[in-house]
Specification:
The protein has about 120 residues and is mainly beta. The chain folds into 2 domains: about 40 residues, N-terminal domain of TfIIb (Single Sheet); about 55 residues, SH3 Domains (SH3 type barrels), CATH 2.30.30. The protein is about 5% helix and about 35% strand. It contains 1 helix and 11 strands; from the N terminus they run βββαββββββββ. Strand 2 and strand 3 form a beta hairpin. The protein is elongated.
């Protein structure tokens, strides 16, 4: 095992570990294979994952997994958000653009939602 196998290609963490045919980074959750042909296909996988690791797509319905502050108001845990739009370029670290009734247009992060 070479030292380069242990280093995450995404965040350069030295704590990567093998799991079957894949290497996994515990710091950024990036997975990769040492086989160069499968490495490119692994990077073509889903770019947006919810809090449980399920892939998100434009138009999905998601549910918030914690209370979120929206100005002076609070979006309660379990709020259903329909017809999300995933952003190509994140806005202040937020990857989802959506509209929530009573709150209007908002940006959310994938880490605070789960697929409905």
């Amino acid at each position: 095992m070479s030292v380069e196998e242990n280093v995450c290609p995404k965040c350069n963490s030295p704590y990567a570990y093998p799991d079957g045919f894949l290497w996994i980074c515990p710091e950024c959750a990036h997975e990769w294979s040492l086989d160069k042909t499968s490495e490119t296909s692994a990077d073509d996988g889903p770019r947006f994952l919810d809090a449980r690791g399920d892939p998100l797509q434009d138009g999905d319905t998601v549910i918030t997994i914690r209370d979120l502050k929206a100005g002076k108001d609070t979006i309660k845990i379990g709020t259903k958000v329909k017809n999300i739009r995933l952003l190509d370029e994140p806005v202040n670290g937020h990857e989802i653009s959506c509209k929530i009734k009573e709150f209007g247009a908002l940006y959310l992060t994938c880490a605070v939602v789960k697929k409905a």
